[in-house]
């Protein structure tokens, strides 16, 4: 989708964008903001000396700050790009320095907990519009970022009831020009959908790779050697950032446990069918799962 | 790897190769045999009228037979390319027509059950060398085959104790010239390794996609829409051939149930950590799984 289709011109969407955190998402947002001219100034903040040093070398920030407050001062858009567990503290730290009329968003993979943790800190007159770009790789850190990460990928916004529609519209425009397709829904629904499409798959991938790690050494080497037979896809998922995923599970507990319970029941059903040699049950279940794949191919998400 | 490195010339490895079954593997074997001149004559057999018709249209067989016995007569190599559950009956049907000195193999994803089911039917003077090419796609049937399927992929041979080393060597040469890397191991060990690298991942993928199929309709549509967040990889795996996979689970029951038990215990551990908010346990486990991914990248299987 070219930017020409979305806006009559290529003017920056915001004067100053502040990115709190410079991991995969933060650095990708910086790159795309510069590449597509989404902001006149991209301020990046990281508390880590090593990260700031690397960001300076990579050169994707117009200004670089050890303190988030210095980055967000005068910013029109602030996007908190930390793991979900750090969003609340980040919001508290920047709150006194936010400009009236500024938009504050985030990129967390859970939304109810973000609303709970960040919401109370956002001052009157500042617009809080939580967001979640469904884009990522198994790599993390400032080196992992690239401008094309959001191209053709969904970004879900979960505006709060009673929020300012103009602020949401402006944030939409920013993400659209970053290459995303936008969907709006409420935070609770988001967390339920992501529990099955993302959180449970990651939990299962981490589990099976962990099971393999515990095998005797000789078998483990062969698991690596013959990983192409299915296991490999799981290892890629299970190489994702540990702190980010710890925070996701801790902060979407109810929905994940609910989906996990359903999954475990379904797995027990298959386990029992294998134990008792019930081939008809296996075949029937393996056949019905194909319909979902067809749906994905038709939706061009494959 | 060029064929020149393996053999001094490009002579056919066998005069006549008979392929029993024309699914993804059988048709790919036919294509590669013709492309690389591995056999002077490729005889293909399928009991299905529709499959034979399609094979004739695709044109990858030198001769096409409704009865397996007509294909295997005079064949130097017979490869049974049916689902594992049909291997025993196929061996029984072809046994009386096998040429003395012929090699009989298969491509099944489990090996102990194949030895159990095919072995007793193989006549004296015929060499039985079970095999398993670790190659595939989620597509099946004669249209799915292509000559490059085995390129750079492992093929595991599980020769029987006391078997003829020359027969194994000749089958190795055939697979090497088809593009494969070869590993030999005993059948029991194969089944254990594949249980964790292939069978359990497929079982889990089928399960989670099945869990999603049972969600309410509105959520299911969003699962498809946002599948790129992790779920999509599982749907690809879970689109594999239902009959083939039914037979794998029924025929590698002990090893799959053993790995499934370990997996379930590990999943319960994570489930409990989520429920009780034990972030340190989650992070520690998510960190140690990264080592396996590194091993796979170093082994160039990624």
Automatic annotation (TrEMBL), chains A, B:
EC assignment: 1.3.1.12
PROSITE patterns: PDH_ADH
Record Pfam families: PDH_C (PF20463), PDH_N (PF02153)
Single annotated GO MF: NAD+ binding
Gene3D superfamilies the UniProt entry points to: 6-phosphogluconate dehydrogenase C-terminal like domain, NAD(P)-binding Rossmann-like Domain
Catalyzed reactions: prephenate + NAD(+) = 3-(4-hydroxyphenyl)pyruvate + CO2 + NADH
Entry annotated with the keyword NAD: yes
Record's keyword terms, sorted: Amino-acid biosynthesis, Aromatic amino acid biosynthesis, NAD, Oxidoreductase, Tyrosine biosynthesis
Keyword Chloroplast attached: no
Pathway: Amino-acid biosynthesis; L-tyrosine biosynthesis; (4-hydroxyphenyl)pyruvate from prephenate (NAD(+) route): step 1/1
Domain Prephenate/arogenate dehydrogenase: 15-302
UniProt cross-references to InterPro entries, sorted A to Z: 6-PGluconate_DH-like_C_sf, NAD(P)-bd_dom_sf, PDH_C, PDH_N, Preph/Arog_dehydrog, Prephen_DH
A biological process term (GO) from this entry: tyrosine biosynthetic process
Family stated for the protein in its record: Belongs to the prephenate/arogenate dehydrogenase family.
Name assigned to this protein: prephenate dehydrogenase
Record organism: Oceanibaculum indicum P24
């Amino acid at each position: 989708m070219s930017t020409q289709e979305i806006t009559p011109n290529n003017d920056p969407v915001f004067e100053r964008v502040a990115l709190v955190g410079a991991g995969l998402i933060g650095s990708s947002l910086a790159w795309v903001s510069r590449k597509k001219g989404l902001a006149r100034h991209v301020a990046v903040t990281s508390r880590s000396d090593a990260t700031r040093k690397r960001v300076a070398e990579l050169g994707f920030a117009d200004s670089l700050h050890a303190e988030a407050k210095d980055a967000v001062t005068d910013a029109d858009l602030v996007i908190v790009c930390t793991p979900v567990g750090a969003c609340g503290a980040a919001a508290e730290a920047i709150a006194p320095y936010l400009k009236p009329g500024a938009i504050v968003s985030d990129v967390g993979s859970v939304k109810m907990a973000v609303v709970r943790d960040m919401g109370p800190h956002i001052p009157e007159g500042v617009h809080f519009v939580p967001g979640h770009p469904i884009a990522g790789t198994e790599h993390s850190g400032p080196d992992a970022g690239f401008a094309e990460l959001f191209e053709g990928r969904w970004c879900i916004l979960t505006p709060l009831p009673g929020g300012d529609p103009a602020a949401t519209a402006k944030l939409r425009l920013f993400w659209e020009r970053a290459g995303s397709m936008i969907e709006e829904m409420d935070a609770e629904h988001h967390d339920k959908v992501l529990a099955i499409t993302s959180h449970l798959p990651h939990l299962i991938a981490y589990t099976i790779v962990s099971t393999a790690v515990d095998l005797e050494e000789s078998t483990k080497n062969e698991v690596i050697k013959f990983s192409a037979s299915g296991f490999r896809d799981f290892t890629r998922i299970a190489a994702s950032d540990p702190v980010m995923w710890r925070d996701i599970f801790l902060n979407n507990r109810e929905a994940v446990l609910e989906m996990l319970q359903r999954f475990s029941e379904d797995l027990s059903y298959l386990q029992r069918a294998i134990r008792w040699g019930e081939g008809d049950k296996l075949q029937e279940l393996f056949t019905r799962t194909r319909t979902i794949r067809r749906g994905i191919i038709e939706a061009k998400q494959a």
